Hints:
By secondary structure, the chain is mostly helical. The protein is built from 18 helices and no strands.
Amino acid sequence: xxxxxxTRRAALWALTVLTGINLINYLDRYVVSAIAPDLKRAMSLTxxxxxxxxxxxxxxxxxxxxxxxxxGDRGSRTRPIALGVLLWSVATVVSGLARTFPQLLAxxxxxxxxxxxxxxxxxxxxxxxxxxxxxGRVYAVLNMAIPVGAALGYIVGGLMSVHYGWRAAFxxxxxxxxxxxxxxxxxxxPPRGIQxxxxxxxxxxxxxxxxxxxxxxxxxxxxxxxxxxxxxxxxFALGGLAFWMPTFLExxxxxxxAEATTGFGAIVIVxxxxxxxxxGWLGDRFQRRRREGYLWFSGLITLLAVPCAxxxxxxxxxxxxxxxxxLAELLLFMSTGPIxxxxxxxxxxxxxxxxxxxxxxxxxxxxxxxxxxxxGRVSDLSSLGEAVLxxxxxxxxxxxxxxxxxxxxxxxxxxxx
Length: 417
């Protein structure tokens, strides 16, 4: 662990490596979707068995996150990240060697353990590499890897499966992570709170509380939990939209299946990349002007997405709903960097990994895990056209909650250095 503020070069190298890992992270997640038909044929799987591959990963991922969050707040941060990346990469390669469904399911579940280590600890490490007013851009860059990695998962998985078989897709997805795991060990691991101390704050007090007490304290902290609940509503909306939008376009708007899938996928890639980057830059400008600038920006830009999302889901003409989808996705992705920066800034330097782990657990448990199921249930009871209107409602809740949190935090919380 270094004992001083990292140089700009070292900080940028850490961001580059961790962004590369995030790209591989999402490539690994989505490669299964691309090779699902081949898996089904090769192993004689049912659709139910195929459907379990993602939940098995997500459940283990959510359960493992708090353990890694506690580890990341107590000791080295580079070692657990490296261990996690190595574990998920090896598990991905082993998935390519699976001969039976239980072996494949176990491989995907173990991937969840490894990815939990990275997602919980990496944002906390980056917080000590960059000043608090620059963190919106930092987390925007980190999260731009999400749409790109997801798209590469479909592309790499599809190409490898067609030309070399589905096993090759797992091998290609897993090997880069093994190399990146070794690189992580050479990243800077500065003292917790070094950026705040450089700005004039006192050194953070080392707490004697155990991990359970830290998580309990976070659960009781209103400013933190309200932001997380808004984030859960936001994730609920994005998860439901991502899962059901191609089907909505095909079933309700009568768009050909191939066009619905590829068209929406292209929109997500472009808006995800542009929106996430622009949101990080604009969020930092807000933060320099207001103490809760990240929250103000996230709340306002998310509410601006509501009428666009509503128009995208109610307009009948392609000339109207396609531009509305683009604008809604663009505005929604703008919150990604700033809201993660807001969460990191609310937490103290000695609990940031735990805070990100708890946030990750909550937003998936309350967000993108139940939203596809709930929308599907409402669709069965009425219609998909009516069911998807839950999405703009959830977006509205997220925006309002973040604005309330921004206003209350500025009035009641002491100024932070």
